[in-house]
DNA sequence: GGGATGAGTTTCAATATGAAACCGATTGAT
DNA sequence: ATCAATCGGTTTCATATTGAAACTCATCCC
């Protein structure tokens, strides 16, 4: 197999992001972190992930600056918390959620919801130009880096 | 290994989304599709993915309604195109791109950009409540489905 | 002290990935 | 019309990665 491909050197920012969080488990761990989980066993129980894989993923996310370990809350051991950088994945989570809500549930089927804590209002995401006009995929183009082939 | 875990039955829409496009390659294929690629060999060259893997992924994305094959443009064979559903992944792509731009490039390092075709303006994404107020991760909570444990 | 958790690591089997070879159908050039 | 090159895969085989379960050490709880 030689080795799983990496997109680290790609000039496309999406590709690099996927390189950091684009595996089966990482974003689910991040999701749980957004949801307030911090302990190894909490993640393990919530996700049903194998322990060795969880350990690997937590280490990778930590190395990549998405999570950080803080020595301990009170008891002992340590906690995994989202860094500033990790919190910047919020839009990614919301975008995935929105897609799932729209397309991956049967009509009437229950799903969890993301709401503003204070008011209970639904959280939405949208895409606009710099000056605030909403824009869809067809009106957008990727400008490539001149030298590089990759988008 | 028993089988790779699936999140299909999860009550969290993000998890289900990841089940559909959460592997190493799928979103990159989708990215290229947004960028206008349609042919097997175009994807293969652009991504440097092994052919057998590409074939598997294209089939999976098609089965899941993200891509569709249209019989032929003019010459022969067929093309892979984003479906309506596939185009709804646009926010996910933009979110990943924005994260990558912000955190995964050295200062001054070049990267591709997503702009409005007509004006060249940068495309941005933001998250708001239903009534339009911008909101960050700390002010949002996930409301779980009562019966289910998973978020 | 003794047992139950917590947080991993190790071991081992099953699965998925990647490279390269192979194949039939087109397309293109002569 | 013929021969080579390209397209769109599939097959095979070696290697990587994943997952389950067992096994360690600590620390908690009583």
TrEMBL record, chains A, B:
Which molecular function terms from Gene Ontology are attached?
DNA binding
Transmembrane stretches, start-end: none
Q: Domain of life of the organism in this record?
A: Bacteria
- Report if keyword Transcription regulation is assigned: yes
Q: What keywords is this UniProt entry annotated with?
A: DNA-binding, Transcription, Transcription regulation
Q: Which residues form the HTH hxlR-type domain?
A: 12-108
**Cross-referenced Pfam families, in alphabetical order?**
HxlR (PF01638)
Output this protein's name: DNA-binding HxlR family transcriptional regulator
């Amino acid at each position: 197999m030689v080795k799983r491909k990496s997109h680290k050197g790609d000039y496309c920012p999406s590709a690099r992001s996927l390189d950091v969080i684009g595996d089966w488990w990482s974003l689910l761990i991040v999701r749980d972190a957004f949801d307030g989980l911090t302990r190894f066993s909490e993640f393990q129980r919530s996700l049903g992930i194998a322990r060795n894989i969880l350990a690997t993923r937590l280490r990778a996310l930590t190395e990549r600056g998405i999570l950080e370990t803080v020595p301990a809350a009170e008891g002992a051991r340590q906690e995994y918390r989202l860094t500033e950088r990790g919190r910047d994945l919020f839009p990614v989570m919301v975008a995935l959620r929105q897609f799932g809500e729209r397309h991956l549930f049967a009509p009437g089927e229950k799903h969890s919801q993301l709401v503003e804590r204070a008011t209970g209002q639904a959280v939405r995401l949208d895409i606009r130009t710099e000056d605030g006009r909403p824009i869809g995929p067809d009106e957008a183009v990727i400008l490539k880096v001149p030298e590089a082939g990759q988008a």
